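Form 7-S
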Amino acid sequence: MKRKLLIFLTAFSALTATAQTTEETPDNKVPFLESISVGIDLMGPIRRAMSDRGEYQATVQAHIKGLFLPTVEVGYGTADRYDADTYTSYKTKAPFGRIGCDFNILKNRHDDYRLTVGMRYGITSFDYDTTAPVLEETPPTGGETEPGEDTPAPANNVIKDYQTTSEKCTLQWVEIVFGADAKVWGPLHMGWSLRYRRKLSCSDYTNIPLYAPGYGRGTESSRWMALYNISIQF
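Output:
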């Protein structure tokens, strides 16, 4: 379901971009700060509604000479996960931030659509609770055996109680960003970005954070992520 939705949004963005063309504008006729856009990501809320984790993100991006696009991204991530196989649960919610710059690689940098590559530095500091069962070993059933007799049943582990561990983590990472953006109508723009994320550091922990706001699965040292952005350009 999520994959089909992502494919549809990506195809819509590409078709919108290729359907629009404008004449190339000389750089000397364009102001240094060409425009500013403010947008939100649509994939994070959809992911949160369909799973046990997700995030809400806003983006502010400046367009300098149509080439440089300094970007600030801020958001809030949440997770409330229960694993029925291990009887463990994980909860966290915290803000995150990213800062970086994209570069428009199209020849006509002042057109109604952009194709970009860029980088981000991301950081989040969050508290998280991990609840896990406390196991107690029960003695085996049966007594001593003589040759030829049945072997006693092995000892079993039963859940005696549940223990919650509260920890704090500061996680930093970098992203390589590939993106496309198209003008839909007036100041309204839509586009997607594909992110490759690489973890830089994570403070000491007893239980590894299963989810880090703004990054994703904390158990992975690197990961891919896709975002779909809707923005207003001023």
